[in-house]
Amino acid sequence: MIAVNVSNDIVTARQAGLELAAKLGFSLSDRTMIATAISEVARNITSYAGTGEILLGVQDRDGRRSMVVQAKDNGPGIPDIPRAMEDGFSTGRGLGLGLPGAKRLMDGMLITSQPGHGTLVEMWKWVPTGA
Fold it and tell me: Start and end of every Histidine kinase/HSP90-like ATPase domain (predicted)?
């Protein structure tokens, strides 16, 4: 578990993701995509929730071994998840590419959120065959 409280924690989460992805045998390009997706969801924590955590692990997703990233916070939540997944939509000053961009970089994403009670973003990338 990586606590995400300040912007420097984004770098820590990204580095932990890179290390796990390397151990799991991901290519350099896949490691870069994973690290970028982690940066996006961690930045959302610092920008919108203030504090939260990133959990990294290996689980079965859609019948395949996967590197799973969970970003959890107790922030204000996302009132309209489909809208938040549209390119260009942002409730802050960002470009609105964070969540949709992270989703494109990974093989799957689920978002659970309740306004006033935080958000859980789960995303995963399938571990390469033979790794």
Answer: 29-129
Nearest to 103 by CA among 15, 24, 41: 41
Q: Strand pairing of 119-126 and 52-61? A: unpaired
Question: Could you tell me the two tokens for 26?
Answer: 């991901």
Give me 59's structure tokens: 């689980």
Q: Classify residue 6 by its DSSP letter.
A: S
pLDDT tens for 12-23 read: 999 999 999 999
Q: Sketch the domain layout of the chain as residue ranges.
A: 2-126
Q: How many C-beta neighbours within 10 Å does residue 55 have?
A: 15
pLDDT tens, position by position, 35-94 = 999 999 999 999 889 999 999 999 999 899 999 999 999 999 988 888 878 766 555 554
